[in-house]
Amino acid sequence: MQEYFDLHIHSKKDFLEMIALLEKFKYSSIAVINIQRNELNQLNNSSLKIYSRINLKSNNINELKQLLSRNINKYDLISIRSEDKSTFNWAIQDSRIDLLTFKDESNYSIFTYEAAKLCAKNEKPIELIISPFLYYTGQRRSKFMRLLSKLIKILIKSKAPFIISSNAHSKWDLRAPKDMVRILNLVELPYENSIHGVTTYALNLIKNYEQKKEKFNNPDLLVIDEI
User: What's the chain's average pLDDT?
Assistant: First the structure.
């Protein structure tokens, strides 16, 4: 059976309703923002596989190293958002970082073809967020779609991995897996490519995370290395 993933869910007041809807939509795994590993036990009754995740934002390599050191053993998945090209390219090559997030148009310009090839080489997925499609209007929406379309052309040409996520803050932000995929058709990402963003590429991200854990006898530890 096909596995579907939404790895960018926020824990809010209606979180249990969100969980129920995600189960109805046939997701197999999700990642919840800013819930630490030791807080996930309360969700054991769900049929979903639930991972903890933190989003880090930094435009400085030394600052990012400090943030990683403080958070590496608290969360399952770590994502980075940066508007600095050097920091972004460094993050692509650090194995502690699981994915690179593009939430809005503010950091799209740093994603070059060279960076995309580096992502492909390091199996480091880019995260595409659908929430701007739901809430942006007017000129901001036009700018967002134009820049995202350019980014997607680079993704397709470079064959870099990517995931598609909801960034859902409530049940009203959630979409079924194939609906998320179809939204990206608006910026010329063909279905046969975009479906991998909620299936294959997301599954590979989780597998890479699990493999990092297995390198230690203690399953709560991740690989820590410095570049």
Answer: 91
H or E element: which one contains 108? none
Is residue 81 pLDDT above 80, yes or no? yes
Burial group, residue 129, by CB count within 10 angstroms (0-12, 13-18, 19+)? middle
Q: Hunting for tokens 């052309």 — which residue is that?
A: 153
* Residues above pLDDT 90, as percent of the chain: 79
List C-alpha distances in Å: 131 to 119, 190, 213: 23, 19, 31
With beta carbons less than 8 A apart as the criterion, state whether 97 and 70 touch.
Answer: no
Instruction: Give the residue from 1, 3, 5 showing the smallest Cα distance to 125.
Output: 5
With a cut of 90, say whether residue 139 has pLDDT above it: yes
Answer whether 100's CB lies under 8 Å from 79's CB.
Answer: yes
Mean per-residue pLDDT, 189-202 = 96
Residue 162 scores a pLDDT above 90: yes
Contacts of 1 (CB under 8 A, 6+ apart): none
User: β-pairing, 99-102 with 5-10?
Assistant: unpaired
Domains of the chain, by residue range, sit at 5-214
Partnered with residue 79 across adjacent β-strands are 55, 99
pLDDT at 109: 86
Domain at 5-214, CATH class: alpha beta
No. of helices (H) and no. of strands (E), the chain: 9, 7
